Structures are given as C-alpha cells and as structure tokens.
C-alpha cells in the first residue's frame, strides 16, 4: 500500500517502544531538524499497550507488536531485538527510496539538520553504516554463535543503532531472511552489502565520530554531557532530558 502523505523521497525512521515526555521532546526536535529534507516516520512498538493517539501531534506512526512479529527477538533471545524486521514490515506500506533508521537512545552532539541534509544527498548509495567497532571485528560479538549455513566468504559486523538503506537493498535483505534467518541484523546488514558489492559508505566518511556500545547508559550519558566532542553520536542515552533541544 503506497502511503498518501509522502512529501519527500527519503525517510527518517525513529524506532521506539515508549513515548514519555523525553522521547516526545526528542521527536519534536528531530521533526524540526528534518523538516523540508526528509519525511519522519515513528516506528512504534505497541507490545506494552496501544498508541495514545493524543500524543501523535501530526506525526506519522507505524505500529508493530514486537511480541507477535516473527524474528523480532532474534532466535527468541530478548536481548537481541531486531528493528530491521519491523522496518521491513513498515516499508511494505511506506515506500521510500532510502530509510535512515535511528533508535530512540542514540543522540548527536552537533547539528542534526546538517546530518540529515548530508544523508539525503546520498541518492546512489545502498547502505551507510557505523564503521567504528570498539570490540574489534565480527568474531568478538557474541550473536555470531547463532549463525548457521553461512554462504558468505567474509563476515562483517556493524553497530546498527543508526543506519541507512536503499529500497532495493531492503528488498534484498528481506529475500535473504526468508531463506536464512540466523544472521542477527548487525551481521546481516554489512555482510550482505559487501558480499553483493553494493554502493556503501560509512558515516565516518562524512566526518562523524561514534561513542557506541551496549552500555552502561550512565557512562555514555556522561560522555555526551561532558566530553562534548563535535559531530559525535553517543549510545546508549536513556535520559532524553539531557539533550540541548
């Protein structure tokens, strides 16, 4: 189903399972930053309860239920949520040339509008990803143990709190997952892209830095507040009230 209110060719997809005051303020900030550049779509997990329509404020929402969506929790492990599955489901109704997905606990210390403008200009790119890997290579990341029947000569890993995919690459990912669902998306996204020789860039190519990990949140919130490195993304940030919006 083609969406009726599409204004731009590309879309920022904000993934969240909560809509507290901090998240709503963050969404308003993102909406202001992306206005006139890309559309904004909120990918909302309603597993804990239905969406309160009074909170919509004119924003576009796509609801999904993580407890019912097949493969959302990778290999039934609730420590491994897989937003790529929800994005594929959403993209069946909301069709764009590119999807820039960001999770609700990643934040940029810098000009977010400039970032969106740079990404929106990448019309020929299939995949943009976080190249920084503090653990050092795919063999150091424990979801590797779930992979079976690996058809690829080389495996890659990329943190996926932020990534951009083209429509054609998203279609290719969906086809692969129908045949093999054992790749956690932080392995599948870079591995399929490199082995299929797609057009790939890294966010670092545009001058951005990353302080990303599993956590703890307090450490990265402290880095965000006090290190103040320009053009740097931080994750995880659970307290959205600290953002200078």
Largest sheet: 7 strands, mixed
The gyration radius over C-alpha positions equals 17 Å
Distance between the termini: 35 Å
Number of helices: 6
Strand line-up in the sheet with most strands: 3-2-1-4-7-6-8
Given helix and strand content, the structural type is alpha/beta
- The average pLDDT value, as a whole number, equals 93
> What's the β-strand tally?
10
Q: Name the overall outline.
A: globular
SSE string, helix = H, strand = E? EHEEHEEHEEHHEEHE
In short:
With 245 residues, the chain is α/β, with parallel strands linked by helices.
Features:
245 residues, alpha/beta, 7-stranded mixed beta sheet, 3-stranded mixed beta sheet, 6 helices, 27% helix
């Amino acid at each position: 189903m083609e969406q009726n209110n599409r204004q731009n060719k590309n879309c920022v997809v904000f993934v969240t399972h909560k809509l507290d005051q901090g998240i709503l303020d963050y969404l308003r900030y993102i909406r202001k930053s992306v206005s006139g550049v890309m559309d904004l779509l909120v990918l909302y997990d309603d597993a804990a309860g239905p969406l309160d329509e009074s909170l919509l404020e004119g924003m576009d929402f796509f609801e999904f239920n993580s407890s019912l969506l097949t493969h959302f929790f990778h290999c039934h492990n609730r420590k491994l949520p897989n937003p790529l599955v929800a994005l594929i489901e959403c993209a069946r109704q909301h069709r764009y040339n590119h999807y820039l997905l960001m999770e609700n606990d990643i934040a940029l210390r810098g000009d977010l509008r400039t970032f969106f403008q740079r990404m929106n200009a990448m019309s020929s790119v299939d995949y943009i990803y976080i190249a920084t890997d503090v653990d050092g290579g795919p063999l150091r990341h424990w979801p590797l143990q779930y992979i079976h029947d690996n058809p690829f000569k080389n495996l890659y890993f990329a943190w996926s709190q932020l990534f951009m995919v083209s429509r054609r690459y998203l279609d290719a990912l969906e086809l692969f997952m129908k045949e093999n669902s054992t790749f956690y998306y932080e392995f599948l996204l870079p591995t399929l892209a490199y082995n299929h020789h797609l057009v790939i860039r890294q966010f670092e190519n545009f001058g951005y830095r990353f302080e990303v990990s599993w956590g703890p949140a307090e450490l990265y919130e402290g880095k965000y507040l006090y290190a103040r490195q320009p053009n740097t993304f931080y994750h995880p940030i659970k307290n959205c009230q600290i953002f200078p919006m």
